[in-house]
Amino acid sequence: MNFLLHTAPDILARVLLVCMFPLSAYDKIVHWREAMAQEETEPLPFPEALMVVAIAIEALTPLCIVFGWHDRLAAFILAGFCVVTAILFHPFWKYPHFWRDAGDGRQHFWISSRIFASPAGWACW
Question: What does DSSP assign to residue 99?
Fold first, then answer.
């Protein structure tokens, strides 16, 4: 009974907070060329190495969070990854009138909002 009241909800919450990241890592592996094309839109050094690091972060930190192994450190690393990703690849503020027009700016705004919401969820937990 204790498992159902205390442990199971905690595990479920952890899984739901991080379930998208392993899928994103898998997508980067399967669609390597498309992922590299997106990464190369920004002038980053060593894009292949950074992609491998991104895949490792998205694949390993969720496991640490779900299983409780250095979960706070893993959440901190994943939160930093989310912030850097939002700033580098979804700069909605660069689009004039991003909120009014039905263009790329508004799409980047909503993507950034979702990316920033993940670390906020971890901070509450």
Answer: T
- Nearest-Å Rg of the Cα atoms of the chain is 16
- Looking up tokens 């950074």 gives 50
Closest to 58 in 3D by CA, of 92, 34, 35? 35
Angle at 82 between CA 23 and CA 71, to 5 degrees: 75
String of DSSP letters for 33-83: HHHHHHHTTS--SSHHHHHHHHHHHHHHHHHHHHHTSSHHHHHHHHHHHHH
Residue 29 pLDDT > 90? yes
Contact status, residue 79 vs residue 39, Cβ threshold 8 Å? no
Query: Could you read off the pLDDT of 62-121 as tens digits, one per residue?
Result: 999 999 999 889 989 998 998 888 888 877 777 777 777 676 777 777 777 777 777 666
Whether 42 contacts 50, CB under 8 Å = no
One-letter amino acid identity for 124? C
Whole-angstrom Cα distance, residue 71 to residue 69?
Answer: 5
Residue 7, class by beta-carbon neighbours within 10 Å (0-12 exposed, 13-18 middle, 19+ buried)? exposed
